[in-house]
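Final report, closing paragraph on structural work. Over the funding period we assembled a curated collection of sequence-structure pairs, and we close with a single example.
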Amino acid sequence: MFPERLKALRKKNGWTQREAAEATGMSYRGLQDLEAGKKPGYDSLLKLADGFEVSVDYLMGRTDDPRLHQLDE
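Its predicted structure, as stored:
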């Protein structure tokens, strides 16, 4: 589920792998590996979620709602 979501988000933004890596703070090779099925680490998940402006839960397939939710203060 994760590699498919990652690739779909990248394509939705119209980015190449290199552009997505730059936008998310990932290495090009690291992004390639994740799209090929490598399991992401915590730091990678945070970078990707921030770069694509989605939740980690969405990236991991735990929800189909990509929106970020803010806690009330």
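Residues 3 and 34 are 6 Å apart (CA to CA). The chain has one domain: 1-60. We thank the funder for supporting this effort.
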